[in-house]
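Morning!

As promised:
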Amino acid sequence: SQELEQSPQSLIVQEGKNLTINCTSSKTLYGLYWYKQKYGEGLIFLMMLQKGGEEKSHEKITAKLDEKKQQSSLHITASQPSHAGIYLCGADFFGHTPLVFGKGTRLSVIA
Amino acid sequence: GAVVSQHPSRVICKSGTSVKIECRSLDFQATTMFWYRQFPKQSLMLMATSNEGSKATYEQGVEKDKFLINHASLTLSTLTVTSAHPEDSSFYICSANKPGRGHYEQYFGPGTRLTVT
């Protein structure tokens, strides 16, 4: 079974609208990473969350990790075309280990 | 943030030839690097863990004789695709662990697109 579930798979939002992407783990996380990728390109590191209840922000993107460290959400405020891309969450289950990735969320922002 | 580079960014080779992809951590030392593979419209799949000074650890289903990994220094890991076939065409991405305060952060290279004709 999939250890990391990401939803939605695809999202189309109007420019200026807010949106949320969720990432749920089947077990407790050591750390949770959020990346952005444009198709065929490398991954851009957005944020890493490690503590239960932690919340981090970068420009208009906010990510939270729940207290149980099994679910994270990525929230984009007032979306812009530059936010379009694929958002991937990656789970580190034991620390200093390779990441297990969700299937990604493809975000399109339309004018 | 940290910088991880990959070279080449794109490579086209003929079936039967070998291709080497380099992954470098430019501003930090990485005892551990990871190699991932990504097929079109799919997520990243871990291929192997590269440890400096020791043998790589391969994921189940990944042929170690086909995908040779060498981590000769704390800033360089190489992936060599031997006797490449068209089904090896893919996007290969490496990552490196950068030590932080009580944790590691993984930074990814820009990827290498391999096309085998």
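Chain B has a mean pLDDT of 90.

Hope this helps with the figure draft.
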